[in-house]
UniProtKB/TrEMBL annotation:
Keywords: DNA-binding, Repressor, Transcription, Transcription regulation. The keyword Repressor applies. GO terms for molecular function: DNA binding; DNA-binding transcription factor activity. Residues 12-80 form the HTH merR-type domain. This is MerR family transcriptional regulator. Coiled coil: none annotated. CDD domains: HTH_GlnR-like. It comes from the Bacteria. Pfam families: MerR_1 (PF13411). The keyword Glycosyltransferase does not apply. InterPro entries: DNA-bd_dom_put_sf, MerR-type_HTH_dom, MerR_fam.
Amino acid sequence: MTGSKIRRSMPLFPIGPVMQLTDLTARQIRYYEEHQLISPARTDGNRRMFSLNDIDKLLEIKDLIDQGVNIAGIKQLFSISNQGPETLSKNKKTERRLSNDEIRRHLRKEIVQAGRFNLPSMNQVNMNRFFH
């Protein structure tokens, strides 16, 4: 791990400042932890301590919730991103690796377009259960 990655993963922030930075309540943050979307470190006194990576993830969760994705959908998106870059075959000769952000953008675009035109998306059967 590089120095920057190590610094971003260091648990430095108690829940109070994290609430201010993310505009989330303590209850929401604990709820996301219960659903294993985040895993803050704990002090010897069992106090949660958050890293910059945890804060980034909370902001991402908040954005997804605002877009209408529920907890199950967020878990699905996070599991895709934790598997590493996905491979997309454009044709038999050319393969391109997609970044996690590209995967999320593609999925969101498909979901938005399907809803906008009232058309079933190619993943509608699998994706409907992830939305409110």
